[in-house]
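Researcher: Hi, I'm a grad student and pretty new to this. My advisor asked me to get structures for two proteins we've been looking at. I'm not sure of the right format, so I'll just paste the first sequence and hope you can take it from there.
Model: That works fine. Here's the first sequence with its structure tokens right after it:
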Amino acid sequence: MIRVVALRKAALAGAAGALAWEAVVRGLILAGIPLFDIVRGLGTLVSPDGPALVWWPVGMAAHMAVGVAWALFYAYFFWARFDWPPPLQGLAVSLLPATLALLIVGPQLELMHSQAAIVTLTPSLLLPDLSAGHLGGLLLGHAIFGLTIGALYTRPVGYPADRPPPVRMHPPRRSSPPRSARRGDSRSFIFATGIECSYPTIEGGRWRRDQMRGTGHYERWSQDFELAREIGVTHLRYGPPLHLMFTAPGQYNWDLADEPMADLRDHGPEPIVDLCHFGVPGWLGNFQNADLPQALGEYAAAFAQRYPWVRFYTPVNEMYVCARMSALDGVWNEQLKDDKAFLTAAFNLAGSSARMTEAILRHRPDAIFVNSESSEFCQPCCPDERIEAIAAFENERRFLPLDLIFAHPVCDPMLAKLREHGMEDDYRRFLAREVPRRTILGLDYYEWNERLVDNDGRGRALGELFGWYVIANQYHERYRRTMMHTETNRLDASDGPRWLWRQWHNVQLLRGAGAPLVGFTWYSLTDQIDWAIGLGKPLGGVDPVGLFDLNRDPRAVGLSYKHLIDMHRDQPGFGECPALAELVD
């Protein structure tokens, strides 16, 4: 497993582990308990007969250096391999250096401290000294070291939600002028990728999962844009960090967006701006906050006024997924697990999307809205009425946020649920809403989007059973809107090219069936972090799903996507896409 390592945190944990070892063992030695003294053994190699003021700093420095090296080994190769409490993980890995110390370091120190000009190898020098003091000192010291690094090296990615680190968009470092994207006509088929920009909180709202920081985008944004141009995409899904930019009512830190947005304006690709992507600023709390629509509407208006040239927007990304993960599955943000909380989050998210749309239209009347949502489907495992009813309700629940923003009637069981929780009047207000004409239904698809409702009533990932064509057609039949394939990727990098072409053929199949489909997206440009576990824990695991890895080297799927785009961009129906031309005009 490739992982992101917090080098500074690991080094500090290793140094602290060595200090903790020395503090405990030195205290016991001073109390008269004869334990193996690793610091004295290392320090007196340099000053055999010197006072403690000489050998102790030397020995301690060497001891801490070794501790840092082992902590880095732990961070790179052992951390989070097992689902154990972090101190136990550290304790487990300490068995390795303890064994090496017992079999190698101890005997080697005895050899180096030997006063004989020529040392005759004897069993006593080749085998460990198993005296109680020797064994006890080594095992106790390593146990203290392991427990310490395990306790201190945690959460290598993310940061405290109430204390975000200083972030600035590093200026571009270019050896040559930036290339410009091969811009198609405004009516041409959209080939897109995206910068993964999720920023939900976990651990009761205390820890922020900032994907742009974790993947290095803040430092390497100009390089990332160049890579997108190199692939040949026409559009880039891009979400300036709402949680860092919207600092208070009426206050915005535009420094985090001005230069990147200017670069996209001048050189492309054309951005599809994600304004809210799974999280909100700390001062707004979470998605249970009824003030969200008004606040996010204010932010959208300010953004559209600041960047009047932007035409494509995703006001709120994947409303259903956000509401479910935050208020039904209890993983992000408010971390609740009940129907009332889910409905509250769904209505606040849909209300925010509607308010943001209206605010943008006041400044850009011809704006185009890509309402990106996860294309979900649940299949009952067996002919059991209870299981079939659960699957049927989940297949209606997936539509709720889209039903609200598209003013589409909900089914009778969902209406009953809204009445139960006193939300029917709010629902009726959404039904009276006029949906803007220039609206695209964006549908995302991953192998876990299809779930099997097992006999315990829980949904389990089913893999690709029906595929995007079948599921997307269900959404098309319901809403009859212009559509776009807005996300897909594959966790198995070796299978990425096959998955890419499979999803592309699904797109072609749906277009061939007459659906007004205007674009396709591989998401994202670079690898992501901890999405295999839904961002639920800050472990730092790298998901190899990008067109490029985190070193910005191309993956096989990146080369395949470039080939796909080059092959199709000027073909009939792609050079000019009738469905998009109808929206643009």
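Researcher: Oh nice, that was easy. Here's the second one.
Model: And its structure:
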Amino acid sequence: MTNDKLLDAVVIGSGIGGLVTASQLASKGAKVLVLERYKIPGGSGGSFSRNGYTFDVGASMIFGFGKEGFTNLLTRALADVGETCLTFPDPSQLVYHLPSGFELEVSRDYEKFISNLIKRFPHEEKGIRNFYGTCWKVFNCLDSMPLLSIEDPLYLAKVFFKAPFSCLGLARWLPVNVGHVARKYIKDKELLRFIDIECFCWSVMPADRTPMINAGMVFSDRHAGGINYPKGGVGVIAKKLVEGLLNYGGQIRYQARVVKIIVEGKKARGVKLANGEIIYAKKVVSNATRWDTFGGESVKNSLLEPSQIPSSEVSWRKNYQPSSSFLSLHLGVEKSLIPSDFDCHHILLDSWEEMNSEQGVSFVSIPTLLDADLAPLNSHIVHAFTPSSMENWLNLTPSEYINKKEKDSLSLLTKLERIMPGISKSIVHTEVGTPRTHRRFLGRHKGTYGPVPSRRLSGLLPMPFNTTRIRDLFCVGDSCFPGQGLNAVAFSGFACAHRIGSELGINAWKLPD
């Protein structure tokens, strides 16, 4: 195959990270092909339809749709390929329902949130303001510069010249975790537990294992850019990115499952599909998880042969483990169940000791409070999910699997009665997803939603970037810096596309405005 016909990049998977990488490269003039194993794009950031309901696969609490600064990466990714999403602003991030009657709304209004937290812990007013004030310092560093690539020295030099103090400020927090900062300012044990659940709601980890960079972003952007829900459901983001990709000459193929990355002489050359087809490209990008890409002790199939796995990936697996998957209930309920002034997002925890336990924390989203068109007339959508490990769903007979789904679903519904009395009698439609469901449809190892530290690490420093030890093979998504969340994987996509663009010589010289 001649170089003029050779693809510049082939991207494995159409999660948001993969789509941002592909659409960014296409907007720069690269010849790009995305290969998606399923029939719709988006992965865990997608949506699916059943009987008039549009359900989000994953969370409905979306960052990255702000209008100012540089942290609004979903807005920017869409704009770069001529697309936009109509969004509904959420007046609050979520409402916590915690042990001992501790209930707190995280308002979009920062001062309102801080004031309500101080009312609960008046003796910690100074500590509260210092801790969340520190988060703002981290966020302001992030939001003041177009930090899209960590692996391009020339680009970093240009960013440093533009915003030297922000760069230095950000570097200070790279090796720091939230727990260290929280304990510096706060002594109250219940308040420190609240900081733990604040981290857990998006990182699925307590404060001691959550990087301060990520917390600075989330704890501040919810009050800056805010939480904004895309009209039509979260899956619209992926669909818009695909439209932009196609408009700029890129391609996407569905039901095209990649089974191997072709490596010759420690260099990635292309991919092999399940049907035997081989596709060659100058660069190969894996939007699969790190385990599905490089394998591991408990991974039956990976995209690389064991002899091709770099030692750095073995070291990475010692530091990180797959997060739990989820038991998910996608419900259609009678509209009369939920008051019109009810909040969209909720977290329920009955005991602090259960936070890290199997099905200990319950997450609830009601996106039809923001976009009524997602459900039939006189109905609401309730999406409830709780962390659940794949190990608890293995080696079950078909009847045992069905019984466990029913038993665990009933347990989750019982918890929901705490905030939505009568929900069990108001259900008109039910879809249940287990870790096995997530593994099957998303193609993710153990149905995981990303890596979590297996021990306390130094902030984001151990997190891998987009390049790998195999030449011309790149990774993107939640297994890469800066980790989980749609805005985070969008960052990963920007960074991956920039690095590849640098090697292909197609990046613009000017920094983004």
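Researcher: Is there anything I should tell my advisor about the second?
Model: You could mention this: The CA atoms of residues 258 and 352 lie 42 Å apart.
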